[in-house]
């Protein structure tokens, strides 16, 4: 009998819990777009403090919590610290081509000569990747420009992961080679694998 009483008491306590939770859901509150006389700007939600970084933007928004696992963080840190692009294989180049066509080509053009559509419409023309200075620049320079931006070019660190930055760098190297390959490098024997039609993946 005493056991039954204890169970009954526990069930009662749990029901209380459930009710408390519900009260928290249903408490009076202001929705994101609700108006409120509480603040001078008449809005219920407060603007994020200056310098806030959205945690679930771009690539991170694909995950349910906006966060990634420990392994991903280690891989990112390694890519972030590397000084040169990983050895290029066709998968890396394809990935780089997709990311480049999405994030860089609008200004730099799909061949990297700086004559992209946004530049044609009035944005300052970026330099061509095929000039000697940028052909000779180290891989890391391109990585850093993507991460930090450069002059009027905005940074892309919030939407291009460190791994994807290296894929883009590898692809830019391929573009540079495509425009300045010495005739001997054209090699009659083994045809280069085709990258196929430009088909930027969606993620
Ligand atoms: C909105 C247009 C725009 C986009 C998009 C853009 N860039 Fe740029 N980029 C520029 C402009 C303009 C410059 C020249 C900036 C300056 O000198 O003030 C530039 C400069 C550069 C430079 C040359 C830096 C140097 O040493 O002179 C590199 C490398 C570069 N961008 C790479 C990239 C890559 C890679 C991407 C894609 C991830 C990209 N850019 C996306 C506009 C853009």
Please write out the topology:
Layout (H helix, E strand, L loop, with lengths): L1 H25 L43 H12 L8 H14 L1 H4 L8 H4 L11 H5 L2 H10 L13 H19 L23
Helix pairs in contact: 3-8, 7-8
Poorly predicted runs are none
Mean pLDDT: 82
> Measured on Cα atoms, how large is the radius of gyration?
26 Å
Shape: elongated
Instruction: Find the count of extended strands (DSSP E, 2+ residues).
Output: 0
Structural class: mainly alpha
- Spell out which ligands are present: heme C
Fill in the CATH topology of the domain at 58-180: Cytochrome Bc1 Complex, Chain D, domain 2
CATH class of the domain at 58-180: Mainly Alpha
- Number of helices, counting only DSSP H or I runs of 4 residues or more: 8
Helix share, percent: 40-55%
Largest sheet: none
Output the helix-strand order.
HHHHHHHH
What is the H level of CATH, i.e. the homologous superfamily of the domain at 58-180? Cytochrome c-like domain
Strand content: under 5%
Shape-level CATH architecture of the domain at 58-180: Orthogonal Bundle
Distance between the termini: 61 Å
